[in-house]
Amino acid sequence: MVRYEVRGPRxxxxxxxxxxxxxxxxxxxxxxxxxxxxxxxxxxVRVLVYxxxxxxxxxxxxxxxxxxxxxxxxxxxxxGSLADLFREIWRxxxxxxxxxxxxxxxxxxxxxxxxxxxxxxxxAKLGTPEIGAGLWPMMITVPxxxxxxxxxxxxxxxxxxxxxxxxxxxxxxxxxxVPRSELDEAVDLVVEALVANSGAVTAIGRDAFxxxxxxxxxxxxxxxxxxxLVAMTLDAREGVAAFHDKRRPEFRHR
Length: 254
Hints:
The chain is α/β, with parallel strands linked by helices. Helix content is about 45%, strand content about 20%. The chain is built from ten helices and twelve strands. The radius of gyration is 17 Å and the shape is globular.
């Protein structure tokens, strides 16, 4: 579900289920974490590039078809893989680039924003639609608040609305917006600039930057527990069922 390729100083980590819009299933998140650790440990790799296969989606977010609400307690620990992925991205000492080739929603939006540099095609949709399925985007709260104004983040989470790349750029969620025909060139140029710099200085500078961004370990622990509580509500069960049935949910507010 995750394709890994090293080309010189660059490691490409690709979510590879384009027919399903590259969802972040439990297995996929575990593989993303494993490949990220592999790239960080490889002394030849200087830059990590995350993307999705195909042209439709970077990632549509969590896989609601994998027992998301049927076994919330059992899935509690596995949900921590996304938090661990963010920790590795920020602590790994190597710059990261998100090649956002299509829609980035929910956890996929969080992954795109968590990267150091986020280059997005101009036709994508981005946002946090979880509330419409009776869920809440817990785990991505930390990366979104690191990049965007708190009021903008909360409004997106409360309403579930999506934004276009230009608005995402104004809010600080992405670094650059380009036409699809220019996406690969833009990513290549950024990678070239990153690998031309001192790897030692980059690692020290990134570590200093993220230390000044506040403590996130305890925040992730609280958010992981909150996600499990949300998944145990009756409304989460109804919301996920309505999502699969392609109908409006009838929430009971319980």
